[in-house]
Design brief:
The structure is a single chain. By secondary structure, the chain is α+β, with helices and mostly antiparallel strands. Helix content is about 20%, strand content about 40%. It has six helices and twelve strands. It has a six-stranded antiparallel β-sheet with strand order 1-2-3-4-12-11. The relative contact order is 0.15. The N terminus is likely disordered.
Length: about 300
């Protein structure tokens, strides 16, 4: 009996090993082809979900494949863009995959996105005049109206006094907080349910009359095609413990220093950008496409 159990365990181990080896081969093949299609300098990370792999390989149908590339250069300024694509309902015939042919690979649905890091955004003019630029999410209501909107974070981090949203902040979200429009189209915090814009808090140090001053800028980020437009609305002086509203005359002088248009480049797999969001990681642009081909993938370039 023990010998039979041992043999069964060996067979299972061999099958699992073959399954993982097959998955690794497929991931490597997809990675190489994704590098060519997306015009990347290095092979992206590829993960094929689901187990066992061989069942999917034989049928040629894959539930979920992730393609992710780090530190992709875009245009002449952005050097550290993260690109990610989640591929669902992928039809990839085994014969084509083994031969490295991606022409017949079709994708039922793609969720693609690019993330622009604060260090990269800090290279965009005129934001390159701000030292140590940091980014955090904020609600649009807080951006437009400040403390009176009741949108501050309830967390204990530095967002509590400066309008940045922590993970459990009541004002987290995006949309147009101007208060106009139908109430049915607004979220519980008064923001419109529109992912094409979001609130953001930019912070950093600027030189004012020869004195280095920490400043917080509250802005709206909006999508215009593949361009992210940053429009600042108001400023605060101070630090994480105490802030002071900047006088209007000074605001008018400094606000343009936080205004910028950033071309993110094309999203992968012909995805049309429809949503933008801010986080400590930076600004992320996302979109979705259906019924596309792997051969039709494009790149952030």
């Amino acid at each position: 009996m023990r010998k039979i159990v041992t043999i069964v365990l060996i067979v299972v181990a061999v099958l699992v090993g073959v399954d993982f080896a097959g998955a690794a081969f497929a991931e490597h093949t997809v990675s190489q082809k994704a590098r060519e299609q997306l015009k990347l300098d290095n092979d992206p990370e590829v993960g094929i979900g689901g187990f066992p792999f061989l069942t999917q390989a034989i049928s040629g149908e894959y539930d979920h494949i992730t393609v992710e590339a780090k530190s992709v250069p875009v245009q002449d300024v952005l050097r550290d863009v993260d690109v990610k694509a989640e591929l669902y309902d992928v039809d990839a015939p085994l014969s084509d995959l083994t031969q490295g042919n991606v022409d017949n690979i079709t994708i039922g649905r793609v969720e693609g996105g690019v993330t622009l890091k604060a260090s990269d955004i800090n290279r965009i003019s005129p934001l390159d005049n701000i030292q140590d630029l940091q980014i955090a999410a904020s609600s649009e209501s807080y951006v437009r109206h400040g403390e009176g909107s009741g949108e501050q974070s309830t967390g204990t981090d530095d967002s509590a006094n400066t309008g940045g949203d922590s993970g459990d902040a009541p004002g987290a979200g995006s949309g147009d907080g101007s208060g106009s429009g139908d109430e049915a189209d607004q979220g519980p915090d008064g923001d419109d349910n529109d992912d094409s814009s979001a609130g953001i808090r930019l912070s950093g140090k600027v030189q004012i009359a020869g004195i280095e001053q920490e400043i917080f800028a509250f802005a709206i980020i909006e999508l215009d095609g593949t361009t992210v437009k940053i429009t600042p609305h108001r400023l605060q002086f101070g630090n994480d413990q105490e802030t002071t509203v900047v006088p209007q005359a000074v605001q008018q002088q400094l606000l343009p220093s936080f205004e910028a248009d950033i071309n993110t480049g094309d999203l992968p797999f012909t995805v049309t950008p429809t949503a933008v969001a801010a986080s400590p990681d930076g600004i992320t642009v996302r979109g979705e496409a259906k019924n596309v081909t792997f051969a039709g993938a494009n790149a952030s370039s």
